[in-house]
Write a structure and sequence with these properties.
The protein is of the alpha+beta class. Helix content is 44%, strand content 23%. It contains eleven helices and ten strands. The protein has helices spanning 3-10, 110-120, 137-146, 154-176, 192-204, 212-219, 223-234, 238-256, 261-267, 273-284, 288-295; strands at residues 17-21, 29-47, 52-58, 62-66, 77-79, 84-88, 93-109, 127-128, 131-134, 177-178. The strands form two sheets. Strands 1, 2, 3, 4, 5, 6, 7 and 9 form an eight-stranded antiparallel beta sheet that branches. Helix 4 packs across helix 5, helix 5 crosses helix 6 (212-219) and helix 9 crosses helix 10.
Length: 297
Amino acid sequence: MTVSEKIAACFGINAARALAIRPLYEETLTVVHLEHSYDNSEHTVLLPADDAFLVVLYLVDVDHCDILPDGARTPLKTYSRGSMCLISLRNGAAISVRGRFEALAFHIPSALFIELAEEAGEPRIDDLTTCRGIDDQVVRNIGGALMPMFDMPDEVRDTLLPHIGLALSAHLAHRYGRSPIQHLSGTGQLSPLQEKRIKAYIAANLSGGTPVDKIAEACGFSVDALCSGFLSTTGQSVSEWIASYRMSRAQSRLSRTGETIAQIAEECGFPNEDEFVATFTKAEGVPPAAWRLRNRH
């Protein structure tokens, strides 16, 4: 039985459309289009233990609850269309679904992230952060790009799929990846790979506010080691580097896109539009809108 058939069977679906993607070398990322109506009854989904991760992108509003290892159930929750869940399958998982269900399920072997780290020359990813019901625009856009490909000719589809699979894997690694426990060098500095991983994580999570404790946890450091190592290596504190990077990202979005000031503020991790305008004006001497008029590409 193929990976896609196993996943479909867990959801009580006899046949489901699937895409098998090999982004790099040996490991295959599987995308399954799941669609079923459970009416008002509940269907228990038991996902067996597997050295892989599962991303579920909801294509309609879906009602389900988690079933805990002791059999207890969390309250029934509606996961809105366009939101996603990300879980590890190392210990298996169980949920109960009710009503209409339609989603894209991405089955991603852990070994794919090893291939990705080796190819990119980046630190290994030990785990991904569990997420439930979050809005991830990148995953949502990738899902939208994949939907027409179920019906494309093989020769067209097979040319595009590896690029999309690689983009998805890299995004998940950068935004949700957790590195094994890291240590500073004898000089108290970060290695080039450690510095790259930290900055990549910050860049991928900029809109979320990137608190230092979350950066440290994801990159395998204690907060003290991260802060001292980053300062010793870059000459800037973590917060100073983030502030500088936010401003650089904002200037790039202002000059190259038609996004609103509010959209750029959110994308660059500012609490609100007013704070973005005040911070930008203080740094650049003019408000974002005026700066955009002078620097539009």
